[in-house]
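Homework help thread (please don't just give me the answer)

Our assignment gives two proteins as sequence + structure token strings and asks us to describe the second one. The first is just a warm-up. Here they are:
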Amino acid sequence: MKKGNLRSSALLLLTACIWGVAFVAQSVGMEYVGPFTFNFVRSILGGLVLIPCIFFLNRGKKTEAEKISAEDKRAQRKTLLTGGICCGIALCLASNFQQIGIQYTTVGKAGFITACYIVIVPVIGLFMKKKCSPMIWLSVLLAVVGLYLLCINEQFSIGYGDILVFVCAILFSVHILIVDYFSPKVDGVKMSCIQFLVCGLLSGIAMLFAEQPQLSAVLLAWKPIAYAGIMSCGVGYTLQIVGQKGMDPTIASLILSLESCISVLAGWLLLGQTLSIREGLGCVAMFAAIILAQLPAKES
């Protein structure tokens, strides 16, 4: 493995660890504040944390920036702003569907259902005229079996929270593809900062209409919000953008999907949540689907 690929893989693995534990923070935070309030505060906090990082990282780039023409600078700013806004909208939708859904399901189940994006990413690629190998279709079948075991109960009904988290997985797939498109063209940390501020602004608007935010409740939830804001947002999503640069989006999504396994461990260790045998088999099927989706196709 090339040194650059190894570095990118390590960054994405660290991201998966941070996100896996963040499911616990998100679940605990719901005991104090509403989902839009939680995402508003965490996203704004994540964006603010990155501002000093941007100034620090850009100190050595001033000489290079002076060589670029004014027209190129405007084009770069336009691409950066467009990428940040698109990422922010996708992130806002995905994170709020996830945050609402996690109130009605366990941390472990939410982690594995969210990890469906590993299968959804290549399927969405079909609409972008990218071919899918037979292994992809087998992984889709396994993912459907895994979702059935995880989500469908004995009464053949699916939980409300599970549906919301599955929608979140689709939206995160879109987010991954947007990041893949823009990350090679712009400064990853700057785009990450913009996406958080956009996500926070949109979540804040929804908060004002759907919830009754109270500062006292936010202060009570400061620990899970701080972890979700600083680590999951400020550190995690930035590592995703930096780590994904130059990486195949499907391989990147495989590494990121390890957050599902970490979420189960974190839910068990920190919250005492366990899965039934049926749900455990669903997790095994889902993880098999994740692995199969990444097997290289045979060259014709």
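The one we have to describe:
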Amino acid sequence: MAIHLTKESRVLVQGMTGGEGMKHTRRMIAAGTNVVGGVNPRKAGRRVDFDVPQSPNGPGGAPTAVPVFGSVAEGMDATGADVTVVFVPPAFAKHAVVEAADAGIGLAVVITEGIPVHDSVAFLAHARHKGTRVIGPNCPGLITPGQSNAGIIPADIAEPGRIGLVSKSGTLTYQLMHELRDTGFSTCVGIGGDPVVGTTHIDCLAAFQDDPDTDLIVLIGEIGGDAEERAAAYIRDHVTKPVVGYIAGFTAPEGRTMGHAGAIVSGSSGTAQAKKEALEAAGVRVGRTPTETARQVLAALDADA
């Protein structure tokens, strides 16, 4: 089991023929992802040969000569795709997600950063109406180690295991995966740090709670907004599995704008300390560094054994 992405997932890549799309499609295929097509209306009918050896941990049989379709709907009709990964420039991202939702895709993973917030609000509302789950925007995607990788998360930094991870930060996703590489993960989801995202901490907490192959959940947040406080309330009321948290930004200077678009702090609201206190009040162990957080995870797994 896993959440949202398995070895059965059939993946399209919107923007596959661009520089970033080519690079990361090659890496996804090497990780075992079943990439069944790309989407580019100007290059429809072509095939792109990635010439990538299959990963030993992959499901096998993923094509290296990938067809390019003129639309998401055409690609879905031809291949049965149920996931799309979006690598298009910010100006075209809204159209790409709306097109995917209109085609009825089940999951759209939006890697693109720098999308105007009003565009994100529009395509997320449209996707919800159409029944399409969106991960992102401005996210690293998600990976189920040993099964499938949709996005830009390095596939070789962790093994399959029984930890579920949900994170606002791409870099911290990678670091915690590396810290706990020998223990392994069921699925790791980078939800993105923009002010408006499709899939939330709470969505992933609910999915991991229901996943029989996830024994413990790691939640990574950061300063700004109230997503972590809302997640803490959800954990208190609905999550029975152990949860370990980490909040980036304890050393952030007061009154200074930080990197992520969502990292907006007003007074005491949105600070790392406020989020830590909310999570701890819900029974979550919270580390002050990624390494300490990894130790907390191992301790919680030992205690639960």
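TA reply:
I won't write it for you, but here's a hint about the kind of observation we're looking for: Confidence is low (pLDDT under 50) at residues 56-62.
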